[in-house]
Amino acid sequence: MARRPLPRILSSGSASITRSREIARTAADNATDVLHPLITVTRGMRLLAGAGRQKWTATPRDRRGHVLFLVAACVLAVALIPYGPLLALISVMGAAAWRGRDRTPARTGPDEAGTARLQALYEALVPHFSVPDDPAPLFSHGGDWEKAFGTSYVFDADGRLTRLQVTYPAYFTDGDPAARSRVEQVLHAKSGRGREYHFAWDEESNQLLMTVLPPLPTTIAAQRFVTAPGETVLGFTDADAVRRTVPVEDGDVTRDASPVIWRTGGRSTEPHLLVVGHPGSGTTTLMRSLALQALQQGDVLVVEGGGTGEYGFLAGRDGVLAVERGLAGALATLEWAAHETERRLIAANRARQSGHPEPEDIGRPLWILLDRPSALGHLAAADGRQDPQELLRVPLRHGRAAGVTVLVAEQFDSLHALDETVRTHTRARVVLGPADRDEVEAVLGAQPHTTPTPDVPPGRGYTRLGGGPVLRLQVPATPDPYDDATSEAHRTAVLDLLPGGAPAVEAVQEALPEPEPEPEIVSTHKDRLIGAPATAER
Predict the structure, then answer these.
(1) Domains (ranges, CATH) in the chain?
(2) What is the rounded CA–CA span in Å between residue 214 and residue 523?
(3) What domain of life does the native source organism fall in (predicted)?
(4) Is residue 278 part of an annotated ligand binding site?
(5) Does 282 count as an annotated binding residue?
(6) What is the pLDDT of residues 39-49, one digit of tens each?
(7) For the whole model, what pTM was predicted?
């Protein structure tokens, strides 16, 4: 059967119909734009009328007469004053326009990517925050994440979480460190690696607050810090972790920073310090920083077990009693320090018994810096001599009463070689460099409330003074001024802190090796800088 052709009106009129629709739509849009003020005022008048109707309905019947009398009085007053009706009309139209304006509600929830991330995080926490016999579980597979997270979440520009508050069930064992650690690992992995997170557990409210910590500044160099006698700045931490600030020079500006203050002396509860880290983590930098601060008020003995000569710039300075690298010199220096501690104890005891003040020669603090004692212990064992750590027992046990402070720096791979006396009496601890939570806990005795990152700058780590909290730490930049890789600003900052006997900056620059020195010249220069140890005189 042949197909019957369509009527002409249907075949030829489709284009005109489409064109007519476009014209009608354009006309409607133009009319909407032209009549938009009228539409806005009309909408506002309707809203004002509805609000007035609700107000009239809510007014008690015995007060409606008073309201009508007040309205009539206002209308009469407006009618009698010049231009009153016109001003009233303008006011009503303005109020209607303001009330009827377009108020698109702001988006309060996350976008699709944020919702997916929160749902994935919620599903990952289900095994940790749920039990099979819970009749109304807060966490369940396929459940609603808004019940657990609410609106306490913040995303950064890249769509990653920077703040999240989790409400967990009351039966969760939030007092168990292992259970806490598992939850923190899940949050860390799902929120994005490479950042440092802080976890605050509120056991009373069953809430966990996770926040992303900004990196600590690494631009603070060695300088004179505003501290009281007996106070030493280990480094700087978060602003909300301590209640004290000190002015520091950060580049070309001066600002307030939050220091970690370590108190030494007779009233200190942590008179000795242990620093642990991996190679290149900044343990020697911290020891140099503490030595420069100690020279402002005391004498310093330096015993370097690594033999790298990174304390050579201290040799021959006022207040530096010795800088030793060899085994024989280290044993002799530490033996003198033990006898000096005993002498100070005896002199102080005699002065107290006789009712006299302490002699001046025992009032100046004595600092003993021992870097890498395990290396010296290995040499002593091979040579059949006494371990240098055994000579530290007297300064460690009686140093607080005698004004003697001991600083020990060691690496993680040789931590087992530390003497039990060193472990017991060094209650101020510092861990520098990349370290996991177990390594930090092995040194500090407690896990940090943050997630350590694998890549950290030198001098970054954690500290704990006695039984206090674990704090983040950034050590002031204190490089070796005789190292040709040290910048001019850092070299000048370190040399300016040295006491009398320091050469000028120009002399130090001349003493530095040339870019391509001859072997004989390098050997002669090193022997001159860090050759024979200084004699321990008083």
Answers:
(1) 113-213 (no CATH), 231-528 (3.40.50.300)
(2) 45
(3) Bacteria
(4) yes
(5) yes
(6) 787 887 888 78
(7) 0.72
